Amino acid sequence: MVVDDVSERFDLIIVGGGPAGLAAGLYAARMNLRAVLVDRGPLGGQLLNTELIEDYPGFESILGAELATKMGDHARKFGLDVREFQTVRELDVEPDGTKVARLEDGPELRAPAAILAAGGLPRRLGVPGEAEFQGRGVSYCAVCDGAFFKGQELAVVGGGDAALEEGDFLTRYASKVYVIHRRDQFRAQPLLQERARANPKMAFVLNAQVREIRGDDKVTGVRYVQDGVERELPVGGVFIFIGFVPNSGLVKPHVDHDSGGYLVTDRDLQTSIPGLWAVGDVRAQLTKQIATAVGDGTTAAVAASQYLDRLRDAERRAATQAV
Ligand code: NAP
């Protein structure tokens, strides 16, 4: 690593310390690249919002936090430079192709190659009461907040894997969990639907659009419209799982993305910007699984290493011709 007044230089910058970023970091470090990984929180990304993982090959059942620690320790063991609790404000690209990660607090990080593994944030419902009661009954993380609602009735909004899986998890604490979904069909995988339907503490409110989250000093209910009729369900908390907004806006110059903001990549996961790869949940792809995130990180790290080799070869050739 070379340090000057305003910046630190590396071969590779990795933005995001979830499974995709950590796999990229492990492979980059093992290939002897000078790689730095930056995450705005502790390492683990979405692993930290998942209690139990049962679908990562080789681990029949492991706590999300434990897998996060194992992945972080593994990458560090091979020399990855990890910067936790540092927020990247933007990822810029200079005319010569240098990638610059500007941190909210700290030096600029510069490298010829970068991997964006920044995941995303939960999508907001955008109804009155949602922002006002966040942290006072409105939550986006069952593992983080479920235990605050022991013995209470709760609402979960959404119909995908997250809504049914997290709803099922919440019944460990809640006396009843109502899943409010805008259609009459769930998007979630059949196994999760079966599990939810078999859970006597779960109930389903279908074809229902949430209009407002109500409360006084904390949430007291959720108002929705079903079959043209306005109704209110008294609940102590509302957990919202209606998808995900990728953190692709971190990239300052234009980079190709789909209508949901997910970055579009080629076969080696390179974006439309040469020397910038996108991996994991920030990338347009079929599914968001730990196993696919790890595969993405691996592919991108190997592709980045080959890209750096090609850059060095070109520099050597240019230097030879100049002599
Ligand atoms: P998702 O699959 O995109 O589902 C979002 C759900 O929210 C859909 O049912 C959607 O309804 C509903 N929705 C979206 N916008 C809404 C709005 N404005 N108002 C009301 N409802 C709205 O999102 P996800 O469940 O968070 O899952 C994201 C990804 O993570 C998926 O790829 C999923 O497979 C993966 N995941 C996997 C697991 C697992 O395998 N165990 C667990 C969690 C997540 P419609 O159906 O009507 O569009």
Task: Please tag this protein with its features.
single chain, 323 residues, alpha/beta, FAD/NAD(P)-binding domain, 2 domains, 5-stranded mixed β-sheet, 5-stranded parallel β-sheet, 22 strands, 25% helix, binds NADP nicotinamide-adenine-dinucleotide phosphate
Describe the protein's architecture and organization.
The chain folds into 2 domains: 7-122 and 244-322, FAD/NAD(P)-binding domain; 138-240, FAD/NAD(P)-binding domain (3-Layer(bba) Sandwich). The strands form 6 sheets. It has a 5-stranded mixed beta sheet with strand order 1-2-10-9-8, with no helix packed on it. The protein has 6 helices and 22 strands. It is α/β, with parallel strands linked by helices. The structure holds NADP nicotinamide-adenine-dinucleotide phosphate. NADP nicotinamide-adenine-dinucleotide phosphate binds at residues 55, 125, 158-163, 165, 182-183, 187, 241-244, 287-288.
Overall SS class: alpha/beta
Could you spell the SSE succession in H and E letters? EEEHEEEHEEEEEEEHEHEHEEEEEEEH
- Round the mean pLDDT to the nearest integer and report it: 95
Helix content: 25-40%
Write the layout of secondary structure elements.
Layout: E1 2-3, E2 7-9, E3 12-15, H1 19-30, E4 35-38, E5 52-53, E6 62-63, H2 64-77, E7 81-83, E8 88-93, E9 99-103, E10 108-111, E11 113-116, E12 120-122, E13 138-139, H3 142-145, E14 153-157, H4 161-170, E15 176-180, H5 190-198, E16 202-205, E17 208-215, E18 219-226, E19 229-234, E20 237-240, E21 244-246, E22 276-278, H6 290-322
Parallel strand pairs: 2-10, 3-4, 3-11, 4-7, 11-22, 13-20, 14-15, 14-20, 15-16
Antiparallel strand pairs: 1-2, 5-6, 8-9, 9-10, 12-21, 17-18, 18-19
Helix pairs in contact: 1-2, 1-6, 4-5
The structure holds NADP nicotinamide-adenine-dinucleotide phosphate (NAP).
